[in-house]
Amino acid sequence: MAVPTHKTSKTKKRMRRGHIKLQVPGMSACPNCGELRKSHYVCPNCGFYDGRQVIKTNNK
Question: How far is it, in rounded angstroms, from Cα 47 to Cα 31?
């Protein structure tokens, strides 16, 4: 069975694991109210999607 000859340093280990991280979702400004929202989702602030009211909200 293969056994590593030398210990893997912290730097080498962290370089290998550089892609393992949390990712921020793609946010865009709502054209109706200007709040940040996820792309292709109904705006939780005003309830608009694709230029029309989809859900009723109490915010004005």
Answer: 12
